[in-house]
């Protein structure tokens, strides 16, 4: 029996699974999801809907992403899966020596130093160019309208906005952070639930991106403003870094898991971690979801996968091992033998050599998109280019200043990137997009959602609603407040150090759209945020 067959026996869920035929958009903000659906109804396809939704999210959820962030996409078109890596490299003028000369022993979190080239605007333009049906100006218009006219804050959004304001009030004392407060706290405080927030500069920036198909951001007026602001405050990012940037079409990577193929973007993203864990787990038999054995093996597998991920993942052509070698059956079998009845401290293996917002979109023509974009750590670096609404990411934070580390800082290099879109196929046909956002929770969320779907036959909404866990470090594992207490206690007796999470913070926020054999779209959206599925 497949999980499609099991859907008539729904697992208890706080929300109902959504069914539709002509189109569906699932994301963390209702206004953004509706914007994508509106584009579908105007004759656009799933790619147009995804771009419109992504651009809207930079306005209606700036706590998690922005125009100055990165993006990745998995796009199913005409029976083929395409991967787009729109993460940006470090500036060509930066180096370990240059950063250490400024007094840092590790990459800072805020300010100009961790800012890398933003890839999101290039992702929108490239997706539109290759697969879109509608003009980019029409596709970005809903986002422009929300930025210009304003929108009322939803509860979860207001919560994270308030947390960010409190954080930047402590760490954003310098003059380079003033534009963040001007843009996101114009009244000297964060906006409240239901309060209207506007960003005219954001609207004008989106308009210029739309009119020039992204060129203004990378070689025109906007690029010049970014360059000037960087120079003013000692940043390394320059006009030539922006002008030379192009997103990359890449071949997605996968593992075969119990009859399904699970797909991720190859490094520099951390999707490899999810595949490593699933490759280990498929060698076990799981008889029940809510069992100590299931959770124990899941946790141990993800720990081993992260150990390899942290050791090896960086820009793919600079990795010391091949992705294919990490994903062999032989290596998975070896790593599987390291899982015992007790919690372990993970160490990386030696294979044979040779953050964020997420959205899913689908249309009635068979096109499907798994899309993720982020500024990292909420609002990112805290640097906003004055008058533009461009909040710049801090992806460079993940670089190491150890010259021997695989992910060491180098000029023009892409760092280990946390954001990952997922996709599921079976027998060469699309099942659909899925994703769970939230820093290093993401591959852990991917593993849990895939297993909830494939091993335990949960419908999309139930697969997302199920209680989650996340490995923190060492033997420490945090579990959600509705995680089964008796299982948590037994896991402690196996050596796991269990922490109880307070609320949804840290456990990711996911979306799923599956397509069944009849072409019916079946969607789930996360209860941990202000999420919504727009469908028709």
TrEMBL record:
Q: Name one Pfam family in it.
A: G_glu_transpept
Cross-referenced Gene3D superfamilies: 1.10.246.130, 3.60.20.40
For this protein, the record's InterPro entries field holds:
GGT-like_enzyme (IPR052896), GGT_lsub (IPR043138), GGT_ssub_C (IPR043137), Ntn_hydrolases_N (IPR029055)
Q: What is this protein called?
A: Gamma-glutamyltransferase family protein
Q: Record the organism.
A: Brevibacillus ruminantium
């Amino acid at each position: 029996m497949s999980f499609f067959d099991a859907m008539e026996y729904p697992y208890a869920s706080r929300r109902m699974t959504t069914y539709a035929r002509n189109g569906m958009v699932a994301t963390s903000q209702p206004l953004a999801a509706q914007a994508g659906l509106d584009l579908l109804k105007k004759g656009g396809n799933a790619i147009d809907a995804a771009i419109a939704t992504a651009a809207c999210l930079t306005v209606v959820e700036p706590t998690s992403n922005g125009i100055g962030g990165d993006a990745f996409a998995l796009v199913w078109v005409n029976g083929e899966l395409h991967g787009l890596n729109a993460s940006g490299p470090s500036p060509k003028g930066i180096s370990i020596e240059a950063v250490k000369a400024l007094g840092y022993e590790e990459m800072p979190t805020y300010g100009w130093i961790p800012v890398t080239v933003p890839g999101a605007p290039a992702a929108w333009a490239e997706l539109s160019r290759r697969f879109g049906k509608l003009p980019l100006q029409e596709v970005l218009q809903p986002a422009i309208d929300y930025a210009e006219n304003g929108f009322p804050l939803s509860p979860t959004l207001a919560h994270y906005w308030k947390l960010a304001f409190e954080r930047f009030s402590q760490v954003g004392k310098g003059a380079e952070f003033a534009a963040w407060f001007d843009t996101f706290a114009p009244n000297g405080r964060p906006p409240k639930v239901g309060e209207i927030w506007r960003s005219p500069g954001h609207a004008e920036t989106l308009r210029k991106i739309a009119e020039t198909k992204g060129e203004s951001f990378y070689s025109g007026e906007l690029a010049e403003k970014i360059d000037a602001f960087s120079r003013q405050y000692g940043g390394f990012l320059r006009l030539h870094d922006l002008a030379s940037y192009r997103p990359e079409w890449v071949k997605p990577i996968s593992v075969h898991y119990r009859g399904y193929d699970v797909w991720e973007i190859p490094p520099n993203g951390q999707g490899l971690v999810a595949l490593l864990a699933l490759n280990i787990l498929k060698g076990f038999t799981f008889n029940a979801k809510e069992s100590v054995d299931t959770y124990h093996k899941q946790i141990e597998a993800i720990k081993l996968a992260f150990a390899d991920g942290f050791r090896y993942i960086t820009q793919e052509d600079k990795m010391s091992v091949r992705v294919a070698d990490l994903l062999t059956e032989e290596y998975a079998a070896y790593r599987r033998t390291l899982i015992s009845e007790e919690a372990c401290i993970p160490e990386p293996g030696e294979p044979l050599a040779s953050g964020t917002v997420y959205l899913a979109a689908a249309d009635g023509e068979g096109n499907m998109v798994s899309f993720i974009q982020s500024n990292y750590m909420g609002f990112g670096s805290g640097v906003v280019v004055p008058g533009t609404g461009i909040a710049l990411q801090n992806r460079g934070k993940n670089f190491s200043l150890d010259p021997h580390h695989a992910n060491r800082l180098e000029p023009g290099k892409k760092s280990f990137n946390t954001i990952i879109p997922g996709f599921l196929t079976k027998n060469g046909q699309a099942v659909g997009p899925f994703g769970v956002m939230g820093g290093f929770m993401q591959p852990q969320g991917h593993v849990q959602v895939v297993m909830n779907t494939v091993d335990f036959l949960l419908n999309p909404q139930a697969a997302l609603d199920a209680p989650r866990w996340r490995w923190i470090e060492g033997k420490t594992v945090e579990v959600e407040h509705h995680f089964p207490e008796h299982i948590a206690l037994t896991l402690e007796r196996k050596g796991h150090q269990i922490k109880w999470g307070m609320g949804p913070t840290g456990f990711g926020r996911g979306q799923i759209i599956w397509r069944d054999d009849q072409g019916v779209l079946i969607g789930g959206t996360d209860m941990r945020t202000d999420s919504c599925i727009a469908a028709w």
